[in-house]
Amino acid sequence: MSLVVSVYVPSGIVMAADSRMSALLSGKRQDGEQETVQQQIVLSDSAYKVVALPSVGAGVSLYDSAVINNQPADSHLHAFAEQELSEEDDVVTVADRFLAYFQEKFPNVNLGFHVAGYRVEDRASVPYVLVGHTTREPKIRRVNATEEGRVQYGVVRAGDVLVANRLIDKQHLPLFAAMPLQDAIDYAIHLIRTTIDTLRFEPRYPSVGGPIDVLVVTPDGMEWVQRKELTGEDQAIISSGL
Q: Residue 83: is its pLDDT beyond 90?
């Protein structure tokens, strides 16, 4: 499981996700019974679930299946980008091609995603926040526009959303249309950080955890606000002053 959050405001789109990679381990009971026992385990707290595709100006967030064919899900996303995308693609075609690619290559894998970016229409940069799922969504859905096509602002989340849903009261929603980009960043981090902290105390599997990666997409491009960096153990000790 995971928690991915996309907040869309007039100044840009914020894409955030946790880093926990988990798996369901199956085995037989040791007391001689033939009953199959399943246990969820943490494989890593270093998974990349938000990926920037600068060649097409789009960001992609992944949730549900963290491992596909014994490889991290983001590695398949990078392979898709290298093999299937060209400079002619944009945020809309990326979402459509992404869904078709994964449904063909991995038809039985549950993989959800957010795709966000801007598309130039009538000389104006129009934001798109698109969501889909390889097994549950029959088609790509745009969440940041009304039925009439007018841009609207808000938040969409997916994965383990139980805690985040408690924090989002429809009667007291933030005023997203007037929200500065910095507040949108803080809000996305707040939903994931509070989920991680809450799961420490709830009597259930902590499906969300690890560092929080945050990508901001604007008409000018993409920028990582925070992202896990690769380090070595020795370097970590030096940095801590030990």
A: yes
